[in-house]
Every structure is written in structure tokens, then in C-alpha cells.
Specification:
single chain; alpha/beta; Spore Coat Polysaccharide Biosynthesis Protein SpsA, Chain A; two-stranded antiparallel ribbon; about 30% helix; about 20% strand; globular
């Protein structure tokens, strides 16, 4: 698979209600959470897109664009839809988008490489990672062929990524990790403290 056919997309449009402030702008080890993710994925794609409804800071790069959701309040599926619409409206050549959250600072680029390497792109238009028996619905690879269906389903009130993916047909790529969970995500201030402890002991 040619990575030039994939648009890397960071979904940063969440309200971070459990955390109490925009998680993307919180620092861990002196570095913004969103930059932890961007550092790992930026070299893997020709271009990156951030979907955020806030004015946020991040490590600027000529290959990174930032947009707001086309319609707010639609959750992660709305962010995916916004990225697909951006591709179409800007006449980009991407056939897929790879999605990432902003709150998973231990994710490493090798996981992305292994994920894509284990995909048979003829099997599905949608792929998610499952690690250690936990499915990660925001770490996905989505064909832009899904755009029309996604738009229709959002208009009909669909909001849950897992339910939509199951109804659409999703292929799961299983991965196992024996050490620290690279998919540990920061939802609360307590999670941030745990992440700081993990880094201290690493």
C-alpha cells in the first residue's frame, strides 16, 4: 500500500468533558499531548490533517493543515466525515484516511507501520486495531468510498463509532503488547498523573 494514498488525520474535535479542558493542549513531560501523537505519525504521511473546533497550538509544519468540523456535535464520526469532505472539496488524491486521537501519548510509529502492513486492502473499506482484547475505534483506516454512506447515516442520527462500524462492516487487526499499553489514553487528570508516573518509570 502506497502511504501517499493515505491522509493522516488527528481527531481533536472532542469536548474533553471528563478532563475539564482541551486535552490536546495539556502538557506531558513538557510537550503538548497533540504533539506526542504528531511526532510519531508526521513522517509516515505526505500530509496531515487536524480536525479541531478550538484554536489550538501544535508543532507547526508545512504538511499539517487544520480544519473545523463541517457540522459540530457529531462526535468522532463527524471528524472522519469532515476529513473526507476536505479531501473531496480540495480535490486531493487520497483514497484512505488514517485516524488518530490526541490523548494517547505512548503510541509509536512502529505500531502504525505494523497495522498497515497487516492489512489486505481488498478485504474491507474499514479497519480498526484491536490490542490485548481491547478494540480501538479511533485508530482506524477508512476508505473515502464510505463518504456517502457516512453522510447519510450522520443525517439519520448515527453517532456511535462502534455501532456504525459494525453495521458497515469492519475488519479488525489484532496486535499484542506485553509491556506498557501503548494505547493508554488520557481521559481525566488522574490519567495524566498515571502517564507521568509511567514516563518516570520507563
Amino acid at each position: 500500500m502506497d502511504h501517499n494514498n493515505i491522509l493522516g488525520t488527528v481527531l481533536a474535535g472532542g469536548k474533553s468533558q471528563r478532563f475539564g479542558e482541551d486535552k490536546s493542549q495539556v502538557k506531558l513531560a513538557g510537550k503538548l499531548l497533540i504533539d506526542h501523537m504528531l511526532t510519531e505519525i508526521s513522517d509516515e504521511f505526505k500530509e496531515l490533517l487536524i480536525v479541531s473546533n478550538n484554536k489550538i497550538n501544535f508543532h507547526k509544519s508545512e504538511k499539517i493543515s487544520i480544519i473545523e468540523d463541517y457540522e459540530k456535535g457529531l462526535g468522532p464520526l463527524g471528524g472522519v466525515f469532515s476529513a473526507m469532505k476536505w479531501i473531496k472539496e480540495n480535490q486531493k488524491d487520497y483514497k484512505w484516511i488514517a485516524t488518530f486521537p490526541v490523548d494517547t501519548p505512548f503510541f509509536k510509529r512502529q505500531i502504525l507501520k505494523d497495522f498497515i502492513q497487516n492489512i489486505n486492502f481488498n478485504e474491507s473499506d474499514l479497519f480498526f486495531i484491536k490490542s490485548n482484547n481491547t478494540r480501538h475505534n479511533i485508530f482506524g483506516l477508512w476508505s473515502i468510498n464510505l463518504l456517502d454512506k457516512l453522510e447519510k447515516d450522520l443525517k439519520n442520527g448515527e453517532r456511535k463509532v462502534e455501532l456504525w462500524a459494525n453495521n458497515t462492516g469492519v475488519k479488525i487487526i489484532n496486535m499484542e503488547f506485553s509491556n506498557n499499553d501503548p494505547f493508554f489514553n488520557i481521559n481525566t487528570k488522574e490519567d495524566l498523573k498515571k502517564a507521568e508516573e509511567i514516563l518516570k518509570n520507563d
